[in-house]
Amino acid sequence: MKKITVGLGTCGISAGGEKVYSALKDEIKKHNLNITLAETGCIGMCYREVLVEISNGNGCRYIYGEITPDKINKIIEEHIIKDNPVNEWLVKGPAPLTDDSFFHKQKRIVLRNCGLIDPGSIEEYMTCDGYKAIEKVIKEYSPEEVISIVEKSGLRGRGGGGFLTGLKWKFCRQAQGEKKYVICNADEGDPGAFMDRSVLESDPHSVLEGMIICACAIGADEAYIYVRAEYPKAIERLKKAIKQAEEKAFLGKHIFGSNVNFKIKIKEGAGAFVCGEETALIASIEGRRGTPRFRPPFPANKGLWGKPTNINNVETFANIPWIILNGADAFTSMGTDNSKGSKVFALAGKIVRGGLVEVPMGITIKEIVHEIGGGIKEDKKFKAVQMGGPSGGCIPASMEELQIDYQQINKTGAIMGSGGLVVMDETTCMVDVARFFLNFTQNESCGKCTFCRIGTKRMLEILERITEGKGKDGDIETLLDLGEKIKDNTLCGLGQTAPNPVLTTIKYFREEYEAHIRDKKCPAASCSALLKFTIIPEKCTGCTACSRVCPVHAITGEKKKVHVIEQNICVKCGKCFDTCKFDAVLKV
To answer: What is the mean pLDDT of residues 127-142?
Structure first.
């Protein structure tokens, strides 16, 4: 029997996936076809949404991209009824296609089921060896053996810090106290990051199973998933998955007939970025204001309600069942000496193929950007990547051979972070990028630390002045001084890493700061206050398109004659530049 599957992660829904699903349903009913219609999560090719897959039951898969309701009739008529695939819309199939290179260098462990199974069906998860890992743990291993396997795998926390997961579990296992907790940190707040959301929407049971295994290892009987309320689809599917797991007795009392009892609750966060820091997250669950506290004591010894608590993020937990079933050696066979396994990245920015990818550790930035991501949009020049979100830093294109490895990334001044990777091209102003990310962290500061609360504000004021053409000598040195003081004197990870985007852009793109300050020019022609729009007489045809869109009537000239921009009136909105079809408007 043929099966049609529609990608209905948030990316698919926002592209119109629900309308496509409805159109398919109507066409199947109209033709009285004996076909299964199902939904799935994110396959990763977000740049091609809406995605529709047709499988014939023998393992042959056809994936159509950029599907709209008006294309459904042809797909049904040609592919389903006549068994003649519509090649012009295919993005993946039995024959080689251009988009195949998106997958060639990926290694999917965390994303192993994403885009393949219905996230609302526990039965489909079980057909992919779901919940076999926890059964193996309960029936074959002691808690110490489970921790040993995770330790040997070299799995490091995928939430940003990169601490060894097995070691973290061991500390919690050895902590004194009968009552212990497990927390899944799904408070994903980095601009441009959507890894955790996609995994929760596409394969929630893998996260639940990882949490249950952790509970067995450390001796916990209760857990929380802290997920931000802005992820309604993830929350909906998590709630359904928890209910299904309880009905199958994978959650609750006496799991697999053992003395293991475990329950999971969902805590919806209000969207404070600082609550991604584990002590602030714990405070939020307890009903207090989400602010960090001094460590030690660490959560492993004194966490939720003063009890030993283990906290890992979504991606970390999703790795665990695969490691248990395939062994530590299978995981360590990928990666570098210091960074094992694979890493999920959310590709965003000026890249041809934006989406969700999972690559083996040790792959280079160049391979991710140019081979998997398809290069830079509109054949522009690759300039830099921002890694680690607001807590990370910018790595220049000159370092594109750098391997994805915790130590190597840290040496650049950036961090691996949770996996956001924003690609920038020649039109990106690095001073403005630093201003954007610092504005984010300044707004998200809880205000507890003076250096974070006031220091980031002073840095932001300087950056705003520079991008407005009001920078002065000594600003760069002041930014560097403030940045180092903030890193050394703040309490939590947010404050300690807030200056990273500024410090790395100064380190690798200092000449852009100097051009803004001394020449009052933006080399990327991005900062509006430093721009000037002029019309090239030789190229102007007098079509009047630019004058018609100018909101302040700053462009004058007769039809079919050269036009002129009155500089004292121009508000530098750029509409003339975007509208001109003859490249007659120059932006400098």
So the answer is: 97
